[in-house]
Every structure is written in structure tokens, then in C-alpha cells.
Amino acid sequence: MIKSFYIDNFKSLVDFSLPPEPQQLTKFTCLIGLNGAGKSTLLQAFDFVGQLMTGQTKEWLALRDWKKAELTSKLLKKQLITFRVVLELPNVGQVDWAGLFNVNLLRCTSEVVKIGGGTTVLKLSDGQLYLPERRQGSIDFAYQGSVLSQLKLHEHHHESLIALKKFMQSLKSLEMLSPHLMRQSSKSADDVGRGGEKLSAFLAQFKGEQNAHLLEKLHEFYPHVNEWDIKSLRYGWKKLLVREDYLDSSRRPLETDARHINDGMLRILTLLAQTQTEHKFLLFDEIENGINPELIGKLVSTLISIEQQVVVTTHSPMILNYLPDEVAKESVILLYRDSRGATKARRFFDLPVPSKKLSSLGPGEVFVDTYLEDVVRDLCQEGAQQ
């Protein structure tokens, strides 16, 4: 899992750390804040760093309809994005990956990967690549993003590099989920897109136990759901159907085409499907959108209990109200803009006023009872005095 994340010069994220040092990121993190505080930007930053390992930075920008110049902060006048990710990986231990990404070149011009007590297992600097087994040499191949995206790693390379690359490639961002896209028929998909497109083709791959487990989880949210099915159309296209049983058993199950399935069910089905994948780190924006309040508790419980590490954003106090107090203390992060306009982070329940209120109110009630504009103003004044 990711223990800490640092990035500088990515949109509003200037000298930004998550979580606030010296703490570590928990398995479930909930981001709150005023509109424009940088919540979606932070999810995009995670996705950006994950995409460095795929070697498809140019394609990633095109999918978002962004220009490369839009990646950097308007508060700074430089073309380098600095990042650092500290991870704890199974059978490997702590891995520290840091680098400089050149926006004009769309690649990292400097990278360092360290393990354990600081042993360097990869270093890229001034066009020279150092690996313990090959010493140092010039790079004789083209690449986008991280040099690791194109470097063929074999068993003779350090296992930490293989684990790091695999983990970062498994990061999945769904911060652009769109019911319109989820309803569309699709074909040839190993996964859903960032907006939920190709959902039907992705679900068509679910078989046996995986399929049964997904249906079981969906049934917890929608007891009337009998099954979901994928109908094959011409030329390999797939269409999603949902069948529901009601009390009158003499009637055939009601079959609903994806074009007419409610937004909440589509979102929940997509989220639950991701829990059945090999993705290790999931990002969801405004997790409560389109979902009935009565289902929010089940959704929060699911996200807290799954194996993957999860980061969500929310504007809803209901999300916080379903978090146990101890989980809320560790996981709820307030994002805000400082006096310069840069995004900063603080653990919400470490702040004096919310911390005091939590002794007598639930986390969501504290959220409702706290005027965030006042909290942000006080934080900005505090920062100006330091």
C-alpha cells in the first residue's frame, strides 16, 4: 500500500504531502473540503503518477483532453513536476520512488528507487541509468513517463522494481464516472475506462466464482436483482441487462437494458466490479453521487473492508457518519487552499474544533456542524504566521 505521497508543481498541488507528515496514509482515506479545494486534483495527481509506469503519458493527456502545459501549477514558473511515493509492498518491504518529470519531454529525467534502509536499486540522472546488476550506462531507448515503463524487468532485476512497477500500474482511477458512458454497449475490454465506459464488455469476462461473488455483493444493495447478464450483439458488441424478481413469483423476472438502469445501480455495480480485480489502489470522486442515502452505509462498509487501498472524495456528511470514530480520526483529510492558492492537507479531526465536537457528536454531525470557511480562514492565518 502507499504510505505517503508527495508532489510539487502539479496544478494546485505545490509542495504537497499526503497525509500531513509525519503520519502515514491509511487503507481507506476520505477527502473533504470546499469546492475548488483540490480534491479532484489530488485524485488526478495519483492517476498521473500511476500512469508514469504505463509509458502512455501522451495518451493519458489526450483521454482527458488536456494540454501538457496544463499539468503544471500557475503559482510556479517551472516545467518540472517533483514526486515521491513511499510504499509498503508484500515480500519486499518499504520502497521509496522519487523523480522529476519534465513536462516538455513528457518523461522523467531523474528517478531514484530505494528500499529498506536506503539501498539504491535504480538511479536515473543526466541520461545515465544505474542498476546494481549493470552498473551505469547511457539510455539507448525512448520512453514516456518513468524509465521503468519501458525497461524490461526480469528475475535478475531487484524484486522491488518489479513489485513497484506492478503496484503503480494497478492503480485505478474512476474519478470521471459517467452514467451515460456506463450505459453504452462496448466490446473488447479488459477493464472499464475512467468514465465507466466499456462496463458491459468488462463484465462479460466475469465467470464462475468471480461472477457469483459479484452478484452476491450486488444483491446486498439491491435484493430484487436476480442476475445481471451480457447480451452479445453483432460484430462483438456487448450489452448489459439486469433482471429483477419481485414478490409475485408467477411473473417472469423484469429485464432492464443498461440504457434504462438507474444511475446508482450502475455506479455501485462498477465499484463492486473493481473490488474483484487485481487493482491495488482505487480512486473514486464524490462517491455518493446518484446513490440512495439508504445504501450509503453498505457502500462505506464495503469500501472499508475490501483488500484494496481506497481514496474517495465526498461532500456528504452521511459518508462520514458511517465511519467509526477511530477510522474517521485517521482517514478524513481536509483539503483547502492557502493564502497563495496552493492546496494543503490536514487531518480534519486533528483540528481543535472538530476534535472537541467528536467527543459528543458523530463524524458526519461534526462535519455538518462545522463551518468549513471559518476553519480554512483560521488555517490560512496560522500558515501566514509561520
Shape: globular
Strand order within the widest beta sheet:
2-1-4-5-6-7-8-9
Residues in helix, %: 25-40%
What would you report as the Rg, rounded to the nearest angstrom?
22 Å
Low-pLDDT stretches are: none
Integer count of domains = 2
Whole-number average pLDDT? 89
Number of helices: 13
Alpha-carbon distance between the two ends: 33 Å
Under CATH, the topology of the largest domain can be stated as Rossmann fold
Output the structural class: alpha+beta
Fraction of residues in β-strands:
25-35%
CATH architecture grouping of the largest domain? 3-Layer(aba) Sandwich
Major beta sheet summary: 8 strands, antiparallel
CATH class descriptor name of the largest domain: Alpha Beta
Strand element count: 17
Question: What order do the helices and strands follow?
Answer: EEEHHEEEEEEHEHHHEEEHEHEHHEEHHH
Structure description:
- The protein has 386 residues and is of the alpha+beta class.
- The chain folds into 2 domains: 2-170 and 278-385, Rossmann fold; 171-267, no CATH class.
- It contains 13 helices and 17 strands.
- It has helices at 39-52, 57-64, 159-169, 179-182, 199-203, 208-221, 263-274, 293-305, 317-321, 325-331, 352-357, 363-369, 372-385, and strands at 2-8, 16-18, 28-32, 80-89, 93-102, 107-115, 119-125, 128-131, 135-138, 171-174, 225-232, 238-244, 254-257, 281-284, 309-313, 332-337, 343-347.
- Strands 2-1-4-5-6-7-8-9 form an 8-stranded antiparallel beta sheet.
- It is globular and about 75 Å long.
- It starts with a strand and ends with a helix.
- 38% of the residues are buried.
- The model has no long low-confidence stretch (mean pLDDT 89).
